[in-house]
Structure prediction request, 196 residues.
Amino acid sequence: MAQTLRQMAGADPNPHKLANSAVLMIDAQLEYVSGRMPCDGVEAALEQGGKLIAKARTAGRPVIHIQHKGASGGVFDPDTDNFLIAPQVAPAGDEPVINKGLPNAFAGTNLEEVFRGLGCDSLIIAGFMTHMCVSTTARAALDLGIPCSVVADACATRDLPDAEGGVVRGRDLHRMELVALSHRFCPIAQSVNDIV
Prediction:
């Protein structure tokens, strides 16, 4: 039977719990809803992301928002509505919003400093896109010694062309990327309900 490296090492298969974690909502911006890069299943993922944030707020847990800042005239143009965070997961109160310019939310930002200042044990990651900024950030967290989990139903990605002239559906790419992350980098929570 196939096993992940985490299973071979006897790592805890359970996702981290909200009670000891901060929520990291990555790039939940309108570019992925009504812009040039709509994601497969984006509305359902935003609904679940909203539930995740609501649970965090009710429990008094920190929520950190990451917002990708693109160049003028490109995707995530800060002068357009597509730069805005979707209303389902919009920041509230003094929740930090950190702008980034690279897929890894730690690169060139103060995310690590903000997280460590919260005194939390782990990060619970959600957002967009599963195969890109979510995955890159989760992989970087391992390098930094920051335990994390990814919430599957609060993430999504988009259809992409393959090298053979076909298209890989976003839902399939999402599933495969979560499999890859679970191999070594972090446990996966299939649902928001799995982290409470």
Summary: The chain has a mean pLDDT of 97.
